[in-house]
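pinging the channel bc i need a second pair of eyes. not urgent but kinda urgent?? the chain im working w is below, pasted from the shared doc
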Amino acid sequence: MSEPLRAKSGELTVEEILDAVREGRRVVVEAEMLGGVHEVSLRHDGTTYYCDTPTTLHKHADEAGMRECILKMGYARNE
């Protein structure tokens, strides 16, 4: 298994994040939430996309849902 790609919120584009996830890499994003900085894990198991936050495991059925989540939550920088 490859090393996760680590970044801070807004450091990578949504395409860079999705490219890594498509390759089977886990992307760990440092995000400010809940009054502190926490790690969010973004991954794909071949069927489902996951956004694992400190409080919730979000599941997305397709890449469009994952893209929307990444942009909505501010994990990627605005292009």
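so Helices lie at 14-22, 63-73. and The chain has two helices and five strands. — does that match what u expected or am i reading it wrong
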